[in-house]
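Quick illustration for those who missed Monday's session on complexes.
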Amino acid sequence: MTASSSVMVSLRGISKSFHHDHVLRGVDLDVRRGRVCCLLGRSGAGKSTLLRCINMLETIDRGLIRVDGELMGHRFVGDSLHRLPERLLSKQRAELGMVFQRFNLFGHLTVLENIVTAPVRVRGESRQQAEARARDLLAHVGLAGREGYYPAQLSGGQQQRVAIARALAMRPKVMLFDEPTSALDPELVGEVLAVMRDLASEGMTMIVVTHEIGFARQVADQVAFMDDGRIVEQGPPAQVLGAPEHESTQAFLSKLVS
Ligand SMILES: Nc1ncnc2c1ncn2[C@@H]1O[C@H](COP(=O)(O)OP(=O)(O)OP(=O)(O)O)[C@@H](O)[C@H]1O
Ligand SMILES: [Mg+2]
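Prediction with magnesium ion bound:
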């Protein structure tokens, strides 16, 4: 297998309960390097929880997560799994960029500070290097010249593009997006999707929870449909969106068009 077709994110048997609520029921998923996987499903299906588990913002009850071949959150000692200490967890977490529905920028910091803080503190980059990269990234997301603005002085679409630049500043191997456009006014959705489309064409591996079916159809290499804590159907967009086999996928898609 060539490097370009190797698996970047591998999930095996991921299970997670909150009290007695079994939210993830054995999720298996492979996303290849440089590919885009769109994750769809009705509200409460477990999509956000799955992303939060991949990013280790939630602990899993069972299963294995690998990113670029590396086991996340745990190591094997003989046959038994041991949770990694927090110091190593945050190092692994830095490999994954996450963009949330609500931009989660630090309101008291300028755009530039929002972007440079983590690379300097977590990655140990020099301030000069981090600032130069932040300026490049801002230009890349169409926000050159906004370095000194505060989040409240930007539109939602601009804030979300800053959030994407901030995640990219950590040089992640994978970008996770949780409904990145669903809190935006309709006229601002396109500019954020355009940045995501560029990222995909540059070869970033992405897992995107979205209700933007047009984006999934055009940009995704793979669509996975979740229902009640399981991936019930997955494949190329033309197959899953064009000719869904599972009843819940059909019901979900028919509601979107009507
Ligand atoms: N921290 C938590 N404590 C308890 N239950 C939780 C927690 N987080 C999520 N859940 C429950 O897990 C289930 C799945 O939630 P999740 O947020 O993953 O769904 P989702 O597919 O992202 O839905 P949506 O499309 O509405 O964002 C829901 O029933 C939710 O109430
Ligand atoms: Mg969600």
